[in-house]
Model the fold of this input.
Amino acid sequence: MTSEEIILAIKDIIQTIAPDEDLSELKTDVRLRDQIELDSMDFLDIVMELRKRYGVQVPEEDYKELATLDGCVAYLTPHMQGKTLKVGV
Amino acid sequence: MPELSRIVITGVGLTSPNGNDLATYRANLLNGVSGVKKWSIRHVGETNAGVCDFDALRYQKRKELRRGTRAGSISIFCAGDALKDAGIDLATRNRSRVGIYIGTTEHGNVETENQIHEVAQYNFDLAYWSHHHNPRTVANNPAGEVALTFGITGPAYCVGAACAAGNVGLIHGMQMLQLGEVDLALAGGVSESIHTFGIFASFRAQGALAVHDDPTKASRPFDKNRNGIVVSEGGCLYALERLEDAQRRGAKIYAEVVGHCINSDAADFVLPLAERQNECMRGALAKAGLAPGDIDIVSSHATATPMGDQQECEAVRAVFGDSARTHVNNTKSFIGHCMGAAGSLELAGNLPSFEDGYVHATINVDDLDPACEVRNLVMNQPKRLDRVDHVLNLSFGMLGINSAVLVRRWRGS
Done:
């Protein structure tokens, strides 16, 4: 999966969790929680959706790596190799 | 005993299978409009149910809907509408003096079934079990969601009372006002039960799930061919206040709650007992200082099970058989059994009779079961009375819980 596809994958998961948020202007280098309303339960939803959609297990000690979209790309790239993008699930 | 404050109903918020506000609901009760539809649920397949179509986004965002439960959403809708109907703006109130008391028959089955279904797709790997499970299934979930939505910081919890819960929630709210614990109570009952297959399957296993090709005919209390319960969802919460507080702010008063009783059969897990139901009705009358002959409408609990209806009719005959003034009706014939919401919704459907003078009917009585004959049973068509002063609302439940709420027309004094 390319960097762009990983961002699409994460944005689609966030849109499912927070359907009222406008994600079109999200900056990739700013913490997600500073840009949109996401609390710790939402964050656990993101982790759960990564597990369900892509079989990616994110251990608790790595949660901090997913704070920004850039962080998501860096952390998930090796885990998402060969996976197919699933949006609108 | 100290003199207790008088408690009045100043707001009604509801969602019923045949109406999402009191006026529509009442009109449909008077016009014989059923709210029962065909309903399909996993493992059970096609059956009948009372389904609500309220605007869930009136007080919630989509994200909140996704996070919460159906019972929470129903509660929020009813609470918001009850406050609006009562003309109460929480911004002007001390929110720590508002109590939320919601009766439920059961809570948590829906979410537990959903989670088990979910992890079954992953070979029961609990890594796929949701972190939302506990906050969704705790017994106070519906009341807690109301508190969160409206920023209410007073006591908020649920009262478990099987199918008597709607009455019991109202009674509890009234008592908390009388104790001075709160200044405003949002009280009544809710049900999300049509979303759990277990409820349907259990009634079916018990031989108590209604079967009929026409959903609108499936709920038929007192009819010879009744064959069980139609499970329904719904909710009804009341804004309750002490009379002096309601009068001080010039509130519209629907009715005064003048009597109540809760007792137990202590006899069987599921079978009702006419003798204790009789005592429950008489208990409510005694508390109000009234006689059977003072009651205009008995809103029956009857769920259309063969034994339940018969037992209740026996109890009603024993208490009201000598009262020419008393009429008997039933709301479940229109909307099915709204479980935790049944008691409060069924009372609500009768409140407008103080103004319009009608007793709504019990529908679908094509062939009255002789065992269910009671004096002045209002069958199939509403009946106009000269005047309605008192309504006695009955609600009974499993494990032998009985409840009765007695309300009086507000006389302006």
User: Anything to note?
Assistant: DSSP finds 15 helices and 15 strands in chain B.
